Amino acid sequence: MSTVGKKICFSVSILVLALVTFAYHQRVTISMMYANPELTGNDPWLHAVPRPLLDLRATDDPGTQIKAFGFEFEVPWKGSETPVRGEFIKRFSFEEDRVVALWNPSTDPNFAALLRSEGLSRILGRDAVNSRYSLEAATLNATPHPINLFTPPSESIRQFILLTQKSAEEHRGTVDILSVASHDLRGFQIGDPARVSSVLLLLFDKSDDELEVLVFKNPKTKSRITQGDVNRIIQTIHSTSSH
Q1: Is there a contact between 132 and 205 (Cβ–Cβ < 8 Å)?
Q2: Which letter does DSSP use for residue 126 in this model?
């Protein structure tokens, strides 16, 4: 074999060795991308991230005060509680087929604490599992964008875990995630009432208790839920001493 041929063979061998080495070190990322193509695709929900709520105007119509599960807030409609069996959920019905449902925070498992106890803070990062709120923030801020063949395996694992959870939280096809805050609570609004018929509020108080509030209407009716209506809830909600 000529000298040129030997150099070519040597170069090809080095290239193959480099590719094999690269594939070995990136086997975690490659296997996850192959096994979970939906988490690295073009799903708009997975690419959505929280943005600040800019329209803070609240509807000031006479309404109803709601008390449930150690929280109080107002809605700008007239209505009453709808009996629901069990202690997990309370449902309130209002004029023109508007409904507000709340889930009992005491029945919500603390996944952040569970992940810390299982030693997953080294994978997800201490900041991500520091509280329920921080875990939800990390989940909603996760996107497929940083995952590629050059992503370090540790970061790939972190992103796939968060994206798996985010995928499970998709709310009725919405792609709007808003950061909200009021008084001693902070959290997220999932859904824009101008686009969808239901909005989910994930709110966390200073004790890191989470309250989920679902606001929706019958899509077959002409009634509307506005951002001002949702803002009325956000701006009046507060925790009570009977937690």
Answers
A1: no
A2: T
Residue 235 pLDDT exceeds 90: yes
Q: What are the tokens at 185?
A: 């609570």
HSE toward the beta carbon, residue 35, CA cutoff 13 A = 9
Whether residues 201 and 229 fall in one domain: yes
The answer on 72 and 18 residing in a single domain is no
* Distance set, CA 220 to CA 32, 75, 110, 197, 217 (Å): 42, 21, 37, 10, 9
Which phi and psi (to 5°) does residue 44 adopt?
Answer: -55, -35
Q: What is the DSSP code string of 54-109?
A: -------S--EEEEETTEEEEESS-EEEEP-SSSSEEEEEEGGGEEEEEE-GGGS-
3-state secondary structure of 203: strand
Same domain, 81 and 16: no
Cα gap 165→69, rounded to integer Å: 26
Is residue 18 domain-shared with residue 114, that is, in the same domain? Answer: no
SS3 184: coil
Residue matched to tokens 């009046």: 236
Mean pLDDT, the chain, rounded, equals 78
233 within 8 A of 59, measured Cβ to Cβ: no
Question: Which one, of 126, 151, 131, 180, lies nearest residue 33 by Cα?
Answer: 151
Phi-psi region of 70 (alpha: psi -120 to 50; beta: other; left: phi over 0): left
Q: Do 27 and 128 lie in a common domain?
A: no
Q: How many domains does the chain have?
A: 2
Domain span including residue 143: 42-243
Question: What is the percent of the chain where pLDDT is above 90?
Answer: 34
pTM attached to this predicted model: 0.80
